[in-house]
Amino acid sequence: MRIDESGIVFEFNDKLTVDKFDDTGYYQNYFKKLTGGKGVDFILNSDDTLMLIEVKNCAGYESDNRWRIFANNSKRDTTATMVDTDDRDSLDIEIPKKVAMTLACLCGAHSQPQFQTHSNVLKKYFNFIRSNNISSEKNKIKIVLFLEGDFASKKMPQKLILTTLGRKIKEKLSWLNCNIIVENIESHHNNYYTASIIK
Questions:
Q1: Which residues are 11's β-sheet partners?
Q2: What is the pTM of this model?
Q3: Which Pfam families is this protein grouped with (predicted)?
Q4: Distances (CA, A) of 162 to 76, 169, 199
Q5: Angle at 52 between CA 86 and CA 65, to 5 degrees
Q6: What's the rounded Cα separation, in Å, for the pair 13 and 154?
Q7: Which of 37, 144, 150, 181 has its Cα between 20 and 30 A from that of 97?
Q8: SS3 category, 183
Q9: Residue 165: in which H helix or E strand, if any?
Q10: For the CA atoms of the chain, what is the radius of gyration?
């Protein structure tokens, strides 16, 4: 299955169940009525995995987004940028919020059988959480931030940036038993999908 997101082509393994979260009927008709109710880009599951994926393609716009790689909005007001940073957060804050909102939406879809025309797409993901032992190492929820763009500097190589960002996201998601993956096209080695820039 192919899905284009933010200038990146994702080709998902055909054995997976994949949905573009904000295109689902339940999100469109009900959940987005909640102020600030935003979720991740993709949600997918296999026999033993639930994965939430957020895509940020900053390639060519690194200078406007550099502040977002620093934890706790620490550079939001001090880094020169051409974009309005009001109501925006550093990635270590935004991603956990979107994860929490996505999981809340799955719970909401499960709780609304009268809306099954729209809720059934998301209910299957909630049912995975409910019916699998997600507290085990094997069945953990996986959270992926797919961050494209070269933010490297002499002091901070790209690998260190991705690792540090992953650690900060993990701290804010310590309430959830999950694995955190922060990757880009170059570092990506996932069996679930391939990714490439749209040409």
A1: 2, 194
A2: 0.92
A3: DUF6661
A4: 18, 11, 25
A5: 30
A6: 37
A7: 150
A8: strand
A9: helix 158-172
A10: 17
Torsion of CA 148, 182, 121, 48, to 10 degrees: 140
- Bridge partner list, 51: 44, 142
- DSSP H helices in 24-153: 25-29, 62-65, 91-110, 116-131
| Among 132, 175, 149, CA closest to 64 | 149
Q: Side by side, which strands form the sheet with 2-5? A: 2-5, 8-12, 193-197
Average pLDDT over residues 137-160: 90
Distance of CA 137 to CAs 49, 103, 140, 146, 177, Å?
10, 19, 6, 22, 9
Are 197 and 59 contacting, i.e. CB atoms less than 8 angstroms apart?
yes
Rounded Cα–Cα distance for residues 137 and 116 (Å): 32
Q: How far apart are CA 149 and CA 139, in angstroms?
A: 30
Residue 146: in which H helix or E strand, if any? Answer: strand 141-148
Cα 81 to Cα 56: distance, rounded to the nearest angstrom: 17
